[in-house]
Specification:
Strands 1-2 form a two-stranded antiparallel ribbon. The protein contains 9 helices and 2 strands. Helix 3 runs antiparallel to helix 6 and helix 6 packs antiparallel against helix 7. It has one domain: Four Helix Bundle (Hemerythrin (Met), subunit A) (Up-down Bundle). 79% of the residues lie in helices and 2% in strands. InterPro entries: CDP-alcohol_PTase-I, CDP-diaglyc--ser_O-PTrfase, CDP-OH_P_trans, CDP-OH_PTrfase_TM_dom, CDP_ALCOHOL_P_TRANSF_CS.
Length: 278
């Protein structure tokens, strides 16, 4: 048998194997966006390590470089949230593979569990008034909250249009905002633990669809702009970043209040209807 024939047979076998793959295991456009989410999460960890942690441990920490690397890391987490926003929209419009849900959960764990938790750990190491072990414990709670939330999401069915518990992208951005606000250490840790609790709570959050999805996307772009202004040390950039982080934290605190008030009002209305029916 000639070399040409051998290669031809080998190529034919590969093509037959590819044709034998079920359509459900082939990546779709939505899956590609989900993988982009995972890449952004990993690169956020990379920038946090190489630009913030390693220079600090080597005693060659440059404030401007640390700011730039931290901004890059947070920007990548924001980009991951954009990928997470659009992969669902694309999956509803176009074909989605059977792996889509699993890929989404694994990518979310990297970008909105590992990356922000690692950011907290590094903050606990490099910050002057922080305590590394306490920060690491808070980071563990964030990771566990995301893991439990994603597992619960996979095995429960809720009414359409809502999430149960704070969505992990929103929780990740809130945790990072708390760190960037540069508040005293203890209140920051308590707030981070509160966010972790909200992610596994039964508080209902609306899914970002339609107008809400557009608002979410625009807010993400504004947040990236604030991060860029801060990292480039543009006049007023620090104030812009602080304002953006404060608004993120205020939204995280008020949405559960509105949701709880709505549930209480619904419960009271149902009680009144039952009492009237009697």
């Amino acid at each position: 048998m000639t070399e040409h024939e051998t290669r031809g047979n080998w190529v034919s076998e590969i093509e037959e194997q590819d044709d034998a793959l079920p359509l459900s295991t082939r990546l779709s456009i939505a899956d590609a966006l989900t993988l982009g989410n995972a890449i952004c999460g990993f690169m956020a960890v990379y920038f946090t390590t190489t630009g913030v942690l390693v220079p600090h441990l080597m005693g060659s920490s440059d404030s401007a470089m640390s700011m730039h690397s931290a901004a890059n890391a947070v920007t990548l987490m924001l980009m991951a949230s954009v990928f997470d926003l659009f992969d669902g929209l694309v999956a509803r419009k176009l074909r989605s593979s059977a792996m889509g849900a699993e890929l989404d959960n694994l990518s979310d764990l990297i970008s909105f569990g590992l990356a922000p938790a690692y950011f907290i750990v590094v903050w606990g190491i490099v910050s002057d008034d922080a305590h590394g072990k306490v920060a690491a414990a808070a980071a563990v709670l964030v990771v566990l909250a995301v893991v439990l939330r994603l597992a619960r999401f996979s095995c429960t069915t809720l009414r359409d249009g809502v999430f149960q518990g704070m969505p992990s992208p929103f929780g990740a951005m809130t945790v990072v905002s708390l760190v960037l606000l540069e508040l005293p250490f203890l209140p920051t840790v308590i707030a981070i633990v509160g966010v972790a609790w909200l992610m596994v709570s039964r508080v209902e959050y609306p899914k970002p669809r339609g107008r809400l999805a557009l608002i979410t996307f625009c807010w993400t772009l504004v947040s990236m702009g604030c991060l860029a202004a801060w990292s480039l040390d543009i006049p007023g950039g620090h104030q812009l970043l602080q304002a953006g982080c404060a608004l993120q934290c205020v939204a995280a605190a008020t949405i559960p209040g509105f949701a709880t008030t709505r549930r209480v009002n619904t419960f009271r209305a149902n009680r009144r209807e039952r009492a009237t029916a009697r």
